[in-house]
Amino acid sequence: MILIVTNKQDYTADFLILELRRRGVDYVRFNTEDFPQAVDLLIEIDNGGLAGQLRIYNRSVALGEIHSIWYRRPLPSESAKQLMDPGARELVITESRETLEGLWRTMPCFWISHPDSIRTAESKLLQLKTASLLGFTIPRTLVTNSPHAAESFYNRNAGQVVYKPQRYGRVIRGDTVSLIYTNLIEEYHVEHFAAVQLAPVLFQPYVPKMVEVRVVVVGDRAFAVELRSQEILAARHDWRRVDPSELPHVVHELPSEVEAKCINLLRVLRLAFGAIDFILTPEGEYIFLEINPNGQWAWIQQMCPDVHIREALVDLLISGTASHER
Question: Which residues are CB-contacts of 280 (< 8 A; sequence separation ≥ 6)?
């Protein structure tokens, strides 16, 4: 039994479920926004351990039956929306979240990947430090709320500096959502460096690109694809600015030593899945940028059908063993 923890709009989950159905693998999908109003959860803990039932969409699943869990894109409970009292609304949201987090921490299953590991691995600073210790080349990085330090870093790098958010890459203003991408610092930005006092900012030197390489690691298997972002003007600083289908995608042969480091990075971060982004410079050097421990991947397989990420994920969920757990 495989449990998929996600939300109703997760089309990547739909894509993987097609493969589960093709193989006849038993699974249940848990869209967490339906909890608790449409999902019953019973958890009993005593000296004999943990037991319980998940009654979901007219189906009852014993917690002990669950072999593997794919933790994808859960969303908060929607049940609180109908409550007018702000205090009651906050209580429902908090208790629902705490119940599920407690469940995740007590389930003796194989995870892709455990939410605590995902949350820890999302730290950009931890990623960069860990990658450097494992032998990756990383850009020199400054995180600061000091205007003087920011300007000094900008000058030391001859004005070739980028800014990127550490985690929250969106700004919500009413009904409008703005996304924050990697941005090259322009000369006119320098006079606004005083604003970094309001929140720490992550700066890195601009790294010239031949291509960008995304490496999707599933357990002990790595799948690498070139994203030829330099062929489209709007994508040159950050390929996420354009629809990925507009970018040329080419299967990339990763050097064995880089592949080994990618797999080792997941072991150290206690992940079973990760999407790693590199810049491949004109000189042929791989520069580590970041790892998304729960990143998107379905579009890669749709653009490059010979890259069998979906099949590797299903294999891993069925086997229920990652290298760091052996």
Answer: 209, 210, 211, 212, 213, 226, 286, 287
